[in-house]
Amino acid sequence: MAIKKYKPTSNGRRNMTASDFAEITKSTPEKSLLAKKSKTGARNNSGRMTVRHHAGGHKQAYRLVDFKRIKDNTTATVKAIEYDPNRTANIALLVYEDGIKSYILAPK
């Protein structure tokens, strides 16, 4: 994983680093592992704005990540390393030998 280092053009940019996304596979996410993520626009159940400055943003779909890893005794191959807009970690698409697909958090 390559790390991008920024030039110190301001005090906030000094010693700032970020990932350059070189290891991420350029593929679309698996449709069967996506779920709808609805936005509230900082409004509660009666429609009144309850939190300021919490609205807008880019439309996102939630990736269903398998945190429990129930199929731990079967072998799987990593098909892709993907970007997840909902968390700072990348996710890996696993395809088990029986054909079932799942996302896991990609280890470094």
UniProtKB/TrEMBL annotation:
Residues 1-21, 33-57 are annotated as: Disordered. Residues 8-18 have a biased composition (Polar residues). It holds the Pfam family Ribosomal_L2_N. The keyword Transmembrane does not apply. One of its GO terms (molecular function) is RNA binding. Residues 42-108 form the Large ribosomal subunit protein uL2 RNA-binding domain. The keyword Ribonucleoprotein applies. This is 50S ribosomal protein L2. It comes from human gut metagenome.
